Amino acid sequence: MPPLLRLQRDPLVVVFTLAGGILVGLIVLAVLSIAVPELADPFHLAGVAGEPGVMESLLLTFLAGFVAVGILGLLGTPLAYLLARNDFSGKAAIEGLIDTPLILPHTVAGLMVYLLFMSRGLIGAPFSRAGFFFEDAFPGIVVAMVFVAIPYYVDGVREGFGTVPVRLEHVARTLGATRWQVITRIVLPLTSRHILSSALVAWGRAIGEFAAVVMIAYFPMVVSALIYQRFATGGIAESRSVAFIMLILCLILFIGIRLLTKRLGRYDDTP
Predict the structure, then answer these.
(1) What end-to-end distance do the CA atoms of the chain give, in Å?
(2) How much is the pLDDT for 266?
């Protein structure tokens, strides 16, 4: 009997499939609750999509998310490598600090960001004296997104670095490669799948943030704030249309990148 057929008849697999199917079914139902009414009235959906404010908000949100992930890539990748390859005093404390945004209520995270980057804040004050502001400005949106997405990127990339055998680095060093060459030519390419996947998750977390963003920058309005405003002023129909457009764009991007990451960063024969 083929292994796949035996697996399908395994009672444990059946139980696991049923259990997992509940979660998948919940997501499907949630998607359908938005998709079905919108697809039933495509003219209304097209009208909402054509509104300048909606497209501007979507572009602003996506752009801010990409900038936030770019910052995480520059700062978080070296940090992830250090945590993956070194044991040192205080490492547990640093890892705990990195994971802090995971456990904080979103309003608390927003308050922390606001206190740091407001015009009188520890970081915001010197910038404001130079004429650069975070409050109600694009930079404020970005820093809020960076803060809430830190653990999603750093933890994922750290796990990726951990899957690359250290012996590969040692062999490359014995053959004359510098530390920088080892990282850029061996470690990073082999971790590219984890880096891209972590960046995608961090981007999704960033563009989905609401409380932390609006506490420092309600305007210009990101899509989560726009959906809330539409719900408060226009009801379910108005907010649902914007949510559906956001859902479709995110699904296309997420599925595409997930398919791409399957082909990246493999150093073994694992299918």
Answers:
(1) 22
(2) 53
